[in-house]
Amino acid sequence: MLPERILIIGLGQSGLSCLRYCLARGVHPVVMDTRACPPGAEQLPEHIERHFGELKLAPMLAAELIIVSPGLALATPALQQALAAGIEIIGDIELFVRECRAPIVAITGSNGKSTVTTLVGEMATEAGIKVGVGGNIGTPALDLLPSGQEPGEPSAGFELMVLELSSFQLETTPSLAACAATVLNISEDHLDRYDSLAHYRDTKLQIYHRAGLAVYNREDDQTRPPAANAAVSFGFDATDYGRIEHQGELWLSRFGEPVMPVSALRILGAHNQLNALAAMALADQAKIPQAAQLAVLRRFTGLAHRCQFVAEKQGVLWVNDTKATNVGATLAAIAGMSATVTGRLWLIAGGQGKEQDFSPLIPLLQDAIAGMVCFGQDRHQLLALADNTHEVNNLEEAVAWCALKARAGDCVLLAPACASFDMYGNYQLRGEHFITLVEAL
């Protein structure tokens, strides 16, 4: 049962889903947001008490339960005061897992979350399993639950739930007990929120708590679960879920047995081979038949803005990976494309760096990357990495510069290693602008 005095902090998509959840259960929460005009404010019923523009301590201390947006850190002083006063603070995912009765597959990582979440969801659908997919991707998790669900009632008829979870969401989800959980990889990200990379990693690793099976990346030791977890791994050798030589080519494998040739995958890059292996491991634990897994892997072409083929112009391949908003994602994209491109690789990068260390790009600028064109707020940090960098004012100039430099057989990759908010509303708008510019060449 929900308490009567609930405070929802943060509107937007997740906040509105929390509001709908409470109203459907007969509870009329108070709503608060630090923004003067938060998105979704126009959807609030007139009778809902609201406080916009700042966090007000009095309504917070009057609450029995605070449901906080993932965008607001628990370290926020006002939230710490509420915690000290004994008030429970959770997120929307915690509400969801307390009520959900279907098995949950939980997926996090710095990169690849949406791809693996989508793969597992499509594998379940292919197998005829009624699956709900949401969380940090698409549908807010609470919207997957039926209105007014009674304790013990199946979750909207779903037989399986697949959730993409951010580190922000995991901060406020102590009750998660997934049937299978994975941390796909760890690289520097959100260091404007976390004290250190170790703090960020430890938050991600919370996904393994009480998981039936931990699925980790043996190419990235930071993803290893505690020794107490039952675990399997994925990676590039033949262990567990991996790769082997078979019939003269590389195959994806399961415990040393060939499953399908890597060449049959329609998603680009070695990093997507790891994503496919992780999806297979999770799907096996969720009892999704192998035939359904392979059917999806053979047809899945990837998500928009993630190593997405845009066009081939005068023999030059143009690839949109605008979702590469951190250095780790950019490194993965470069490694993946370097393995498939016969010519030179040209990189477009820049934006808001989020206090990351860009130095891991230096060896690639000396070897794999012919040149990097830099734009955006933190372009000067990128320009300082090597001599084969070039400064431009915007994405339009970046595309034009690459079009002049590249020749047949080359690849131009937009993998910015930065957030987009200095110049675009989100990374999707940046990617769509890139596609428009390339198509106009």
Written account of the structure:
Strands 7-8-6-9-10-11 form a six-stranded parallel sheet, covered by helices on one side. Strands 15-16-20-17-18-19 form a six-stranded mixed sheet, with helices on both faces. A five-stranded parallel sheet has the order 3-2-1-4-5, with helices on both faces. It is α/β, with parallel strands linked by helices and 441 residues long. It is built from 14 helices and 20 strands. The relative contact order is 0.09. The N and C termini lie far apart (59 Å). Helix 5 packs across helix 8 (270-285). It has three domains: 6-90, NAD(P)-binding Rossmann-like Domain (Rossmann fold); 95-299, Mur-like, catalytic domain (UDP-N-acetylmuramoyl-L-alanine:D-glutamate ligase, 3-Layer(aba) Sandwich), CATH 3.40.1190.10; 308-439, Mur ligase, C-terminal domain (Protein-Tyrosine Phosphatase, Chain A, Alpha-Beta Complex).
What can be said about this structure in brief?
The protein is α/β, with parallel strands linked by helices.
| Continuous helix count | 14
The shape, in one word, is globular
Largest sheet properties: 6 strands, parallel
Kindly report the spatial arrangement of strands forming the biggest sheet: 7-8-6-9-10-11
Low-confidence stretches: 149-154
**CATH class placement of the largest domain:** Alpha Beta
The structural domain count equals 3
CATH architecture of the largest domain: 3-Layer(aba) Sandwich
Binned, the helix content reads 25-40%
**Which homologous superfamily in CATH is the superfamily of the largest domain?**
Mur-like, catalytic domain
Structural class: alpha/beta
**Record field, number of beta strands:** 20
Distance between the termini: 59 Å
Identify the quaternary structure here: single chain
Per the CATH scheme, the topology name of the largest domain is UDP-N-acetylmuramoyl-L-alanine:D-glutamate ligase
In percent terms, what proportion of residues is strand? 15-25%
